[in-house]
TrEMBL record:
Protein source organism: Pseudolycoriella hygida
Keyword Nuclease among UniProt keywords: no
Family membership: Belongs to the protein prenyltransferase subunit alpha family.
GO cellular component, as recorded: cytoplasm
Protein name in the entry: Protein prenyltransferase alpha subunit repeat-containing protein 1-B
Amino acid sequence: MDFENDAVCEKIINEIDLVFQNDSDLCTFEIIHLAANQNKNKSPVIHAENNLGLESWCTQHVYEYAHKTIFNKKMENPKSIHCISIVKYLNCAILINPDVATFWNIRRKLFINNKLNITKEFKFSSIVLSKKPKSNEAFCYRRWLFSFQSAFATDWTYELGLCERCADKSSSNYPAWCHRNWVLNKSPFLLKYEPRITEKFIRKHIGDYSGYSHRQYVLYKLLETNIVEDQQESCKYSELIHFVNRITSKQIATADQLIHILLPTGQTVHNEIQMKSFLHCMNIAAQDLEMCNELTNMYGYREAFQCHRRAVLKFIVESFKKFNCVDVIGDQPQQKIVKIDGSVYCGPYEFLECLRSSEGGRGELHRKWCQTFLGFQYRGDDSAAIA
């Protein structure tokens, strides 16, 4: 019976290997759930329109046979592990269970010994991710492969698209978002497109906080790299202007007026590009506050909306203090916190005082959060503040 099973498994592995050889446009792999072999004369390998499927009744047998073959070869002759004939077994083993680091390490050795083609390896890892979009080993392997390729010859937009497809397929896909962060560090010019892409993702997956977390990362990265997206003059900083007017009861309408409010002591410290980047990021932050309000009105209270709103508020306050060179005072559990209360903190920092007053009307728990993480101080009469 073992010999018969081994023969069947070998046949299935050869069929899968033939698909890889003949279909250069193969893009997905899936295990098709089938409790038993319903037709013994039919192959469990299904290949249609650049998609590969394997019936689930045979996956355990195929995986165990591939696993056994790989390790037997390694035990009998360590040099045989560098032989190209082992690849077909590796392919099947990884497709069925991509979380075994040993299999990926064997592929690395084969690649270093010029047994594997880098283009085909990128293609194979993307096929693996089509089946298991949270495979951290597959993402790690792709990053390792990039070390052998010039950055100028890399299609970074494809890599971002792959991350997006994986995040779409599986919620809280932090391996995919971490890989996306890595790509953006390698190609920072793509950062300017991220606000629109992440907003689209958030509106599509309102409960998936990994998208919000990535958007927060993008905000800080945009401010750090001074990347600004060109905007039409008619809609330039419109969200930020509306936000500042709402909390300060002013009627500002231009970028110069915004700078006067948001950079009261920092205008002489920063150059024009830095100030534009600051306003651009603050505009995105103001847009996010409005987006959270909009999503709450549409879907009701969600923890993700509240957490993202607070993260954006923290970004706004930290950026204001950083760009205005506000000194840290007091002894607080968090770093870079300035105590702000209406009785003593005014003058050039009117924006922070107005924000403190505005946020004070969102309830006692929110005021405690603002006090702990933003340095806002509230007195008893502040409980009547209007948001």
